[in-house]
Amino acid sequence: MKSRESKLMEWFQWFHQHPELSYEEYGTTAKIREILMEEGVEILPCPLETGLVAVIRGKAKGPVRALRCDIDALPIQEDSGLSYSSEYPGRMHACGHDFHIMIGIGCAMLLNERKMELAGSVKIIFQPAEETSLGALKILETDVMDDVQQIWGIHADPTNDTGTIGIKEGAVTAAVDRFVVTVKGVGCHGAHPDDGRDPIPAAAAIVQAFQTIVTRNVNAFHPALISVTRMEAGNTWNVIPETALLEGTVRTMDGRDRSLFEQRVKEIARYTASSYGMRADVQWVAGPPATLNDEEMAKVSRMKALEMGFQVVPEESSMGGDDFAFLEEKIPGCYLKIGTGKGQLIHQPGFVVDVEAIIPAIRYVAELVANGPS
């Protein structure tokens, strides 16, 4: 008979070999369901197309706590050299969500064995589509979170050695917003720009002016950035196009800065275009807010990590985002970085999780969700 550890390693390799993109995690969901059912873990009826929620009900009364584990992969061609590399061309678990899945499964198994000692209940949320920044909203469309009082989130951390936990109070990831600006001019022959209104110089001026939001409008001690990541205009060499499009992202840690950016992006785009005799239409797409760690939950997480022999380091704040923040808007939460061995960073083709991190992480996270702050 295979040991639990050997089964966990085997399952981890399976998930790594079979990555699925956001909202397409059908095989991943089916495999998680199959494993949990074999282990006798209760799965809640939940109207999710992909993803699922397991629950472990303790014998004694107590709080309801939860663990969020995201399950989707990225459209990246793997170049890790692992013997169990992705079998799907152009897709890989480059963000460690296979690691997160295993922590969720391992915690469910461990707590299910100890449910007679458990006070309260623990929900393990296997969430789809984190990489879209909106997958957590699918969870919030259900009643899964209605009775949950605390929630933990986890993330693989390739900047720290195995055996390290990154913990910090307050903001740890940024609010993530997206903008699309369409500058509308008048197309004409490239040899006669005076016959039209060229949107390209106006779009270029808007890009330059956007940078002044950070340098002139935001407190210099507040982390914030704006990145224009796409520009499109025209389709041939001798025609001035009618429109120019630019798209990008804003990242902020402070809620007031977030509101300021939306206001200034719209003002700068519209007034700059107007100064060129054109119009700019601005689409602002709000993503998740900043992830904010609850002070008491972070304190308990640090204490238990030290008790269990982990090295605890300050969790680095990131201008990346995580839709875990949507769940934290409803209840207190704590988002932890678990060291998975130093190497290529997340979202890179050579990203690798040290498998030695899996079992200790399961034991640690299970302890947190079973015995968090009262």
- The chain-level structural class is alpha/beta
Describe the strand arrangement of the main beta sheet, using strand numbers. 1-2-4-3-5-16-6-15
- Would you report the number of β strands? 16
Tell me the Rg in angstroms.
Answer: 23 Å
Low-pLDDT segments, ≥5 res: none
Overall mean pLDDT stands at 97
Strand content bin: 25-35%
- Helix count equals 9
Largest sheet geometry: 8 strands, mixed
Order of helices and strands: HHEEEHEHEEEEEHEEEHEEHEHEH
Structure keywords:
single chain, 374 residues, alpha/beta, 8-stranded mixed sheet, 4-stranded antiparallel sheet, 9 helices
List the helices and strands and how they pair.
Blueprint: H1 4-17, H2 26-38, E1 42-43, E2 52-57, E3 60-70, H3 97-113, E4 119-127, H4 136-140, E5 150-157, E6 164-167, E7 170-173, E8 175-184, E9 188-189, H5 199-217, E10 224-233, E11 239-240, E12 243-252, H6 255-275, E13 279-286, E14 291-293, H7 295-307, E15 311-314, H8 324-328, E16 333-339, H9 358-370
Parallel strand pairs: 3-4, 3-5, 5-16, 6-15
Antiparallel strand pairs: 1-2, 2-4, 6-16, 7-14, 8-12, 8-13, 9-11, 10-12
Helix pairs in contact: 1-3, 3-9, 5-6
